[in-house]
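My main concern about presentation is that the manuscript never shows what a single data entry looks like. Each protein is reduced to its one-letter sequence and a matching series of backbone shape codes. For the editor and my fellow referees, an illustration may be useful. For illustration, here is how one protein appears when written out as sequence plus structure tokens:
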Amino acid sequence: MFDGLKKKLNRFRNDVEETAEEKAEAAADEAETEADAEAESAPADAAVEPEASEPADTDSVGDADADSEADAVEDASADAEPATDADSAPEQAAATAEGDADAEPATATADQQMADEPAADADEPAPDEAEQRESLASDAAKAALTEEDDDSSGPGRLRRAAAFATGKVVIEEEDLEDPLWELEMALLQSDVEMQVAEEILETIREKLIGETRKQVQSTGQLVSEALHDALYEVISVGQFDFDQRIAEADKPVTLIFTGINGVGKTTTIAKLARYFEKQGYSTVLANGDTYRAGANEQIREHAEALDKKLIAHEQGGDPAAVIYDGVEYAEAHDIDIVLGDTAGRLHTSNDLMAQLEKIDRVVGPDLTLFVDEAVAGQDAVERARQFNDAAAIDGAILTKADADSNGGAAISIAYVTGKPILFLGVGQGYDHIEKFDPEQMVERLLGEDE
């Protein structure tokens, strides 16, 4: 069901993901090139520090010799006090070697040792060139993210590169230009009404342009969320709990079914009779299709197969009178629901539309349901609009949904009429009808290709 549109939506998601990632990588490569150029000057500056360490090496040798002399004369100085810290050994060595010299040379030697300690750190290996470049690139990326960009068209190249370098992806308008155009063509080719397609595209733009998400939430996931929201907004218009409406309505509940000939209106009535039976409701069928030859026979076959009462008049009778009789019968026999069929009115026929308006006035149905084929696409959408103008439909039922690869009618009807799709016909059997769930519909359209 709706496999064709599903493939087109998945193609859009993949196109946006590929476009955004390719541009982000290109911007990151350019930023890395600039970082490499800055890093080339870093080793030259760092080379000054090792040169300053050369005198420190010479002093270290001198200090080592002084330590050796101190060790040689240590035993000869019997009256000398034992050394109590690291500084006393060089001090003793200096006093013995220089004889009557005062303590200043020894103090200078100790000071020199203290000065040599940081110099020894300078002898440690400096970070290699790759590490320097990585550090510079990371710092540049983080700094670019915090800077304001004056380019009104988007976050700008540096900020985009920074976002990619720090594990994020920024989607710009230019990333969506081609994919959105292709999506618009795909929606129109899938029989989505033009106004609905434009609404979907606008919602996607609002939700994607300028968005930044961590790569753990991929661009594909971000696009899927935008598609989900855009589709759900147009599909879920006017939704209400059908079962709750029936349960809370005063009995008998009268449902009128409208739509042109041949779309499965009578079969849908029979399916709903079975649907209500499973919920514990009793039903009666009333044939208001008094113009078409054979209409009585067709609906009678369904009534007998389901063991339901049928109210019918002779061909050419008043449709409003037939359905009114059905309501009277339901009241007299404590029947819960009246299911009233009507003629297959062409939305271009003013006389037939006037007859539908009369039924609405005489019977005052609780719900008027429009029935059409899902495979009719934009024709079904236009007919739904016309029928809604004539009799204020409360919802729609789409037959042959299992044979529809496009899904344009399912997406469009609720939006253009402001009235929800309530059921989908998915086969010929009486049980082959399912309640329409907007969330389930969107998940079906956005599911991965098998």
